[in-house]
Write a structure and sequence with these properties.
The protein is an alpha/beta fold. The chain has 2 domains: 59 residues, DNA polymerase, domain 1 (Orthogonal Bundle); 244 residues, Alpha-Beta Barrel (TIM Barrel), CATH 3.20.20. The protein contains 12 helices and 14 strands. It starts with a strand and ends in a 19-residue tail after the last strand. Bound molecules: S-adenosyl-L-homocysteine. The site of S-adenosyl-L-homocysteine has 17 residues, from strand 10 and strand 12.
Amino acid sequence: MDTLVKYSYDELEKYVESLGEKKFRAKQLFSWIYSKSVSDFDMMSDVKKDFREKLKNCAIILDTKIKKKQVSSDGTIKYLIEFCDGNCAETVLMRFDNRSNLSACVSSQVGCYMGCDFCATAKRGFIRNLEPYEILSQILTIQQDTGLKITNVVFMGQGEPLNNYDNVYKAIEKINEYLSIGIRRITLSTCGIAPKIRQLCEMELVPTLAISLHCADSNIRKQIMPVENKYNLEELKKSLKYYCEKTGKRVTLEYVLIGSLTDTKEMAQKLCEYIKDLKCNINLIPYNPIGDNKYKKPNKKDIMIFKYLLESQGKKVTIRLERGADIDAACGQLAGKV
Ligand code: SAH
């Protein structure tokens, strides 16, 4: 069977011709697959019947399956997607009551090799990179399943997107072009692979950047994020400044508040110092437990003090709403469990 979502528009034209059909059929198919997100050839009402039958015999739209679907009490939906080789990774649909945005949180790899100590994905180890079409398929799966149109995409599922650079970039191009999602509405989150951040700045499409900073003290960051040994805070900051200069945009710094470790006043001060000459917003993420009892959740009071200390530096600080924690879909909880 041929998987249609693997094809570019030009390839789809050739494919349609190879089946003895006129080129314009590709345009119809494209629109059904990407704009209307149908899951079945029979739903393609303006495609003539005998061509639909032909397609059913030789092609499928996606080669991924929904292995499991969980709906949270807050409306978040977590899909466990099975890829054609049997590997699985999550995709999460997040809706926010007060906004019309619908965000898809996609995985870029199965597993991850960055080894962040507080993250459930890291515990799984690295399995493989996802192909561009497999990243795209995650978004199409949500659209097919819900009938809703995704407006924003965040690369915050399993994997370190900058370790799968080429495939992730190709996926971004397709998301932008085929799904008409503006580049500002595509956010790539990275633990801070500095040279790859610079490389990204040179591309034609530069997504919004989010950095998993999590700590502004190099020694403690080393304990929780091995990447600090390779690209330390100083080098990371240089690459972030370069991003701001090049794009004119701000970066978002994600900061996981771990009880009594990264949520203290001392750590807030270190963070203030680190960001004072950086164009950034800060997104505080209260630590979500991953079942190993190693780290603690922060308490409400410490979260508020931390936020206040940063705001007094004139920075915009948000606290990430915990989405889908009841179905293990919150940040850091994605581990491909069936
Ligand atoms: N590898 C990329 C993309 C993952 S995004 C990155 O590191 O940015 C997932 C976000 O959730 C990251 O900011 C990650 O550090 C954070 N996270 C991981 N484990 C977490 C946990 N247990 N609680 C809260 N956030 C966590």
